[in-house]
Amino acid sequence: MSNTNVPTLQWGDTGPLLPEEHDILNGVIEDFQTAFNNKLNFYNAQGDFLLSTPQGQLATSMAAIISDRNRLLAYYVNQVDPSYAMGRMQDGIGRIYFIERIGAQNTTVVGVCSGKVGVQIGIGTLVQDRSGNIYAAKETYVIGDNGTVDVTFVCQTSGPIVCPEHDLQMYQMIAGWDSVDNPNPGIIGRNVESQQQFEQRRRQSVAQNSVNSVDSVMAALLNLVDDHHDPICQDAYVTENSTGEAIVKGNVLLQPHSIYVCVAALNSIENQQAIAKAIWSKKPPGCAMNGDTTVVIEDDSGLYSTPPTYSMTYQYAHNISLKFNVVMARPQFMPNDAVNQIKQAVYAAFTGADRSKRPRIGSQVLASDFYPAIQNIGTWTRIISVQIGRNGGDGASVQMNINEMPVLTQDDITVTFNG
Fold first, then answer.
1. Domain encompassing residue 113
2. Whole-structure pTM over 0.70, yes or no?
3. Of 277, 154, 290, nearest to 221 (Cα)?
4. Which tens digits make up the pLDDT trace of 243-280?
């Protein structure tokens, strides 16, 4: 076995300890000198390293190879830690918990289509919003006896596309179909789930194989997908009242011995059934429920000749529009679209488009969380203050109630340059 003067990688309680690069280079030089009987010159009379010499090039190249090998090993050691894993390694950890990374999602919105009874609105039928984005019908729908039908439309552009309420309009004409309107805003899409977002969901999903706990209900909802394998719930919040008296949690009144489920999801008939069945499959038996939506489901386990039915009650989160007020110092040189760049950066951080964690139901939204997004735009960005609020950007944070989902549009971001 040959000996070397190159320091080796050591293992400590916190993981691998990498030798310094200058120590690796010195070890390689000593190995070369040993092999060539100290006949190689690596330094001149002034002690400067002779990089341009053949031996200097070989020594530095070999030291760089060893250093890169050490870093690569340390990187893969860290990849077995869920807090640091990314990419293919993170996907593998996710599969241990039977979860997959969420791909890019399209904004979905329920449009109330009015017209002649019996008229069919086929799958792929197109509408558009006032910004020009095109949406296609997810399934085939038939206008009912009341002259309307709720149609789920999917934006044809993936990512966080905003569709405000009453924003849909006709794009494709069908005989007997008169109008379309969305009384509620759409569920905003998202980009491919980032490392931070996936890890956050994994932590919340580890209880999905259990039952009879709030964590198991939460995990079931967060991993719920439709027939197209698209996630149904953008977010969920689950809590309980185990006492014999009604209590208030997060500004919501909870009945005695009850469970409370709040979801941020598209309120469509197919989604209602999926959400209700997910809750029923995990909740403790016999407990009371809270919320503003009650869905009747049927036990489809096949254990009964006449399946029993159950009423599941939960709540859809109220979308709460937040306001941002960003005050910047005016730089000497500033791009013409500086205001738009800052608005886009804040919006991207809020929606997770820049791979940040998105604000959630019941979360505290801190104005300081958006400093990095603005500062990363360029060296010309000098922040004086960022404030946030419900009715106006006037505070350092906003606390969402457990029945509230924070939402944001770029129109709700005000940017001012002082000086």
1. 106-181
2. no
3. 277
4. 999 999 999 999 999 999 999 998 888 899 999 999 99
